[in-house]
Amino acid sequence: MTIRAVLFDFSGTLFRLEQDESWLTELTNHDGEPLDIEAQAELMRRMTAPVGQVVELDAEYLHAWNHRDRDPQLHRKVYLEVLRKSGVPRPEQALALYNRLIDPSQWTPYPDTEAALKAAAERGLKVGVLSNIAFDIRPAFTARGWDAYVDEFVLSFEVGAVKPELEIFRRAVQALGVPATDTLMVGDSEEADGGARALGCEFALVDPLPTADRPDALLTALRGFGVA
Q1: Nearest 5°: phi and psi at 221?
Q2: Containing H/E element for 152?
Q3: pLDDT at 35 (0 to 100)
Q4: Which is one Pfam family of this protein (predicted)?
Q5: pLDDT tens, position by position, 199-220
Q6: pLDDT tens for residues 61-83?
Q7: CB–CB of 165/195 below 8 Å?
Q8: Checking DSSP bridges between strand 15-16 and strand 108-109, what pairing results, if any?
Q9: Letter string b/e over residues 47-86, b meaning 16 or more CB atoms within 10 A of that residue's CB
Q10: If 0-12 CB within 10 Å is exposed, 13-18 middle and 19+ buried, where does residue 120 land?
Q11: Longest Cα pair distance anywhere in the chain, in angstroms?
Q12: Beta strands in 1-141 (DSSP E)
């Protein structure tokens, strides 16, 4: 086995949407009370869960949920409903929080993100970022100069396919010009990212822990396949 390309997931893998107290201090629930710490943590989990339905939804919103990463309008629609059902009833508060979610500058990189991208690129591997997402994450990389290490961004809302569908993995390896059997997918979801194995890719799972609690999982994953 020779790894010639690495695909990285974005949320929970390279970057994480971390709780910022300033976002949540003025949020109030249906009773007008501030959200407690547990409610705040659950809110952040629901905003970033890679798979699974996080609240009960009617047919209209369920369709939006199932297709949220293909269409930015559906993404906005369903996440505002998720926030409403998660204890943020005031529309202006929900919208402000949603706008944080889709702002790449608000996402925090893991401590070894730069090192992992650089290590793969400097070894001559093709590097891609493959994400189920409904907004452009490239600015999170360009702002740090890390786009220099990334050959291709394959984003679900741009290609009309989502992980674990084979089509999005196929598009990614074709964009990199490397066979699936020579490609490593690194991600935090066994269900979504692990779907790459059905195309023939290798797969390394990382835990979507808070960034402070996961200092070197990306480099460890690469070393496991001899590419760092």
Answers
A1: -65, -45
A2: strand 152-155
A3: 63
A4: Hydrolase
A5: 999 999 999 999 999 999 999 9
A6: 999 999 999 999 999 999 999 88
A7: yes
A8: antiparallel
A9: bbebeeebeebeeebeebbebbbbbeebbbbbbbbbbbeb
A10: buried
A11: 58
A12: 5-8, 15-16, 108-109, 126-131
CB atoms within 10 A of CB 6: 31
What's the whole-model pTM score?
A: 0.89
CA distance 47 to 177: 33
pLDDT band at 38 (very low <50, low <70, confident <90, very high): low
Q: Which residue is associated with the tokens 């970057």?
A: 15
**Distance between CA atoms of 42 and 172, rounded to whole angstroms?**
32
Contact by Cβ (8 Å): 204, 186: yes
Q: Can you read off the two tokens belonging to residue 2?
A: 């020779």
Please tell me which residue, 28 or 153, carries the higher pLDDT value: 153
Q: What whole-number distance in Å separates Cα of residue 92 and Cα of residue 100?
A: 13
The candidate with the shortest Cα–Cα distance to 129, out of 105, 103, 109, 101, is: 109
* Residue 7 CB neighbours (<10 A): 29
What secondary structure does DSSP assign to 162-225, as a single string?
A: -TTSHHHHHHHHHHHT--GGGEEEEES-TTTGGGGGGGT-EEEE-----GGG-SSHHHHHHHTT
For position 26, what pLDDT does the model report? Answer: 63
